[in-house]
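Structure tokens please, single chain.
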Amino acid sequence: MPPLYFVFKFFLTYKCTSSIVHLWKANGGDILIDFKGLCFDKRSAVYEQIALHVKRQIFLGTAHSGDVMPSRRELAAITGVNPNTAQKAYHLMEDEGIIATSGNTVSAVVASDEIKQKIEDELTRGLVSEFVQNAKSNHLSYKKVIALVSEVWGEE
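Here you go.
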């Protein structure tokens, strides 16, 4: 296959928003949630990936309570998704309690201690579960995994 095929295949597999401005400003000068570097893959629904991106920002401490979300239309434009997909992402985030919308206007992050703990549990458990599944599928023993993790951890 020619190299262009692989570039095209990568483009179809991952859609990234790396070309957007790092921080967006709302009318009042509030910092909006950063969607730079968000890459979509085909493993899960796009609206779920948008919600996961916001959760990761809360987990990493780059998003805080009160940080303003772009409007649903702005999010669609920023990420290049259908406005209905952006709407689904907002509904999911509202249902999970990570954002709140006052009336039909501005949506903002809700990063209470309880929400932060819930996100941390979800993200870390998911990461470890995926790692353990991969280790088991490669027939690695528990002792071997612990030894490798200890070795790699010590290299930092």
